[in-house]
User: Fold this.
Amino acid sequence: MEIQERKSGKIYALSSTTSVPEWLGERARRNLAKSDSAFRHRITLLQDLEMPVSSNKVRQSPDGRFLIVGGTYSPRIRCYELSEMSMKFERYLDSEVVDIQILSEDYGKLAILGADRSVSFHAPYGNHSVIRLPTFGRAMAYEKTTCDLLVVSSGKRVSPGAAAAGGQAMGEIYRFNLDEGRFSQPYNFTSALRQKKGVDVDDTRVLQLGGSCIAVSPTHSLSAIGAEDGTVRFWDNRAPVNSSQSDVDLTPFLNLDVASATAGHGFFDENSNSGFPGEVTSICFDASGINMCAGTKGGNVALYDMRSSKPLFIKEHQYGLPIHTVQFHSGSGTVLSSDPKLVKIWNAKGSASSSRGEWNDNDGGSSDSRDDEGVGGALGSIVANVEGTADFNHFMISGDSNDPEGHNSGLLVCTGEQEKLQSFYCPVLGAAPQWCSFLDNITEELEEKDGALDQSAAGDDTGAVQTETVYEDYKFLTRAEIDTLGIQNLVGTPLLRGYMHGFFIHVGLYNRIRAVAKPFEYKEYRSQKIKERMEEKRASRIAPKTNPQKINAKVNPDLADRLQAKSGAKTKAGKAAKSLVEDDRFGGLFSNPDFEIDQEAEDFKLRNPSGVASSKVRNDRDMDSDQEDDDNDDEGDFDASGFTKISNENEKWGSESDDDDGQNDFHDSDSDEDGFQGGKIRGELYENKRKSSKDKKKKDAKKKKAKKKKKNVMYEADDYVGGGANAIDIGIGNVSADASKRKKEMSLSMAERLQLQSEESKFVGDTKRLKVTGQGSVKEVTFIPKATRKKLEAQEKAKQEAQKDDRVGRSRRGVKSLGFKTPFKHHQ
Assistant:
């Protein structure tokens, strides 16, 4: 809740916080309340008191129980029941709302003026009837004594030729009698601009004359219509009107020239604003029927006594914008006038001996320019200015069932160019209505809290006597934190409130002390925010597509890959692997180094013999890889398990280049033969010699490496006769296949095993059986690939099928074997 400080008091903005989406869950609302203090301190006056885009008009029913709001888009009205503090119903319309009039005590009968020249009548069950107007309507008023609905129209346009011939534009006020259900003769009036002497009148201004606003006095049934020519015209509804159009009672009996009275006042800018600044845009009567206010397009408000044609006071709005709403507040004796920027509250009662010059307001709309501000001051003195977050379109003072007109209420409800309706509580005007009486309690608690804090800051002991049970705006500090901030001298004062093992301190005071104690904290905070924004920008860039189900394992990546591969299977092991991967309780297995698996440990090898064998096979398969570092290549040759390197005589005894390198190293080394045990020679000659020797070593190492790459290396295979474990060691066997084969052989009978061995003996070997030939240091390992074996098996099978054919001793031939060029066709 935002608080606007004024000299006369405080104004509480009840709808300053942003609206919460309807789809936001209850848990998200609770989290938002914890993190956002503005949301936590918000006040919801009425549930869903908003429109999709903007709102135009707001009215309260005469019984004070319902609130009717018209808005857009799409055009609609919403009815709110104040006792339930929520929306009662919503109805959609065919056109935008121009004005709303409540014809009954509650929401049962409504008249809605639309922007499409229509007036729609609504009942509790919905739209009852629609009537069309000859011209566009601008405002409405309901006259209870005659049961007439008065509609101010834009008037009839006069052609330039007719205007040149002396014709005048004529304005009309349509009268629709709700008792008879038909139109009555309209009120009509002519332009007063041509009748003014010494005034330069634009011809285009008199071609069309229309009304802008209307008001009916609650006391003497006097109707006042403000027109575009700056004149307020009055009709007495109590006088009988005949059906004749020439009846004199259809014309106004009194004209009040507001444009001439307000000429020379205000801040209307003709360059940025168009139109006549003296045009009357709003009008209202007070409850007694004595005073009347008229607002103009130039931002002036003229206060009149009905017994005089001269204004008592002219109030200027500094923005120079049209006054769209004027309303009396009899409880405080003030007038509320509003333009799109603010609602100005000023005194309507003052000393009768004030001169005409004292009545004029020359402060330019400033609320701090007078010393006698506040309720009860001089005539025209400003009480407060209410500023909103968006442009205002209309406002009203909301009351309750006891005070429907809101004469003693301090609650303002404003429509504007935003979704939420803006509501303000002004205690200086009056108390809150009965349906939202909790506003008085909240504002009183806030004022008491602020007064106690002011007294505590001033050192008054009376402020320390008051205790609070809610510590929303306080921060808890321990003794160590107090020592760090250096505020030990505040211990024992009202600024630090002892509680358990620490103290409570006000958040504002804590922030100021922290800014002094840690002056560079803002720089750290700023750098942290910059870093976070940079990370957000990097995250928004196009990144490579990754597998969301893949485990990002920093520890035990092999285990993570195996579990990921198994998790896709529907077997029992696959389900177990999937549960292990998805369970967060085992997340530390792939991130915590304490859970890293030591594959070299004896317990691991004993428990996982298959894993050790497979890792050994993978290492043996990489024996010909070229991914070792240069140092590993220089240290020695690759040694693969199961093979023995065949070395030639030159490598055994060394080459001449190796001998030379050894001699150079011998002479360049620092040994004990120099006569200095552990000593080293220093000097310019030594440094040059050492540098040259290092360069020579590097060149020799590169030559040796290049020579080794060009040289063919021969390896001698060990005796792998019979396959089995030896074949598995060199990577051409399969542990699981061998185990399954043995299991299958054990399930066979002795006769079946002998038959199987006889069948396998017909082949030289397979991918799992080796045949070693040769003696001495040269051996040859041969085997038959699996593809060749399949071909041999297919040939053997075909030969057996041919032998089993009893009818013919040879294989049967097909049609294609006869050699016909074209297939045989049956001739009919």
